[in-house]
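Q: Structure tokens for this one, please.
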Amino acid sequence: MRAESVEHTRNRRASSDLISRSLTSFVSFSLIQLPLYMLPCFFPNSSLLTLLSLSAVAMLAVAAVGRCCKGLLRLRASAPAFVFLNIMFGWGVYIGVIRQVISPLMDFILNTEFVMLMVGLCSILSTDPGFVTTESSHLNKFVESPVSVYEAHSKELVPSTCDMPYELSAEETAIPFQRVRYCGHCKAYVKGFDHHCPAFGNCIGQKNHVLFIILLAGFVLTEASYVASSAQYTAKVKILDKTGKLASLSINLATSTMIFSLLQLLWQGVFLAWHIYCVCFNIRTDEWLPPSFVNLVFHDNSLPSRFNVNKLFLINWKRYPEFHLIVHPEPGQTPQTQSGSETRFTNPYNKGILSNVKEFLTAVE
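A: Here is the predicted structure, written as tokens:
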């Protein structure tokens, strides 16, 4: 009875925390949408570029103030709830306002996209990304390393010269926990770990990486369709209403949601392109570092004269030994380090774009 009481108390606390975080997300959502709606009211004749700039500044200011307030009040928001509210709000504005001037084909496409977004969001919230369970016979060997299973085999995995191609032995490729990383948010090891996505409230790993890319592409397509539809609506309504007094609420709603979708589309399009790049070159987000860190990793003139784009976007190779390439100086040359060797980056997982994409699409189990 006592154990049941403790479990019941935990469930109540979890439910209360979920409600509190959802309410915080609703307040954050409202505070962001309100200034976006007010901007077309105060600047009715402004260009789209001006409204975009003002909206971006307003969103950043609201986000900064909201973060400070949440920190002071010790409140936490639910990012998936925030995403859900934005989808439902945009869908509601489309059905109640914009839909009346849209062709039946475009109406079917956009409604289908909204439905697929909701299905995809619910799916990725509950999908197992590839958590490593205690039932695995290799777990005891794996958990000895705080980062990955390769830590225990770092000596065998590091090539000794820059000309030697990276190869895995049969024993190493048989290890079922290759590329398993630890997620600090979920407090668990995830096979094929890419990153923990706050917006979707789940880790992105081997089992749901494809779903993540599809869902991200779905957001980009839906927002592009919404921007086109809302732009078509505002143009037609302004032509029909030459006095500028008809349906001002509807026009402002269509304009503000169009601007919000366009801002989302700009960064999500870049985000999607970057993830596609990572898939093509078989690099995980957790392993990647932006080019601005190049000077922090390499000394001056330490980059080879000929290197591919995969080496330009350096990854977090210092953390994962399988990315280490030990280069010994040739006889007569000045040693690069005190030990007489230099550590460079190599990507042992890169098997060519076609093979990488095929592996990405089929690596579910």
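A few notes: The chain is about 55% helix and 5% strand. The radius of gyration is 25 Å.
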